[in-house]
Amino acid sequence: MADATEPTPGASALLIIDMINDLDFDGGEQLAPAAEAAAQRIRTLRDRADAAEVPVIYVNDNFGQWHSERSSIVDHCRRAGSRGTALIDALRPRDRDYFVVKPQFSGFYATNLPVLLPQLGVRRLILTGVAADICVLFTAADAHMRDYDLWVPEDAVASERTEHLDWALELMRKSMCAETAASGALSLAAWLARADE
Question: Rounded to the nearest 5°, which phi and psi values hold at 110?
Answer without folding.
Answer: 55, 40
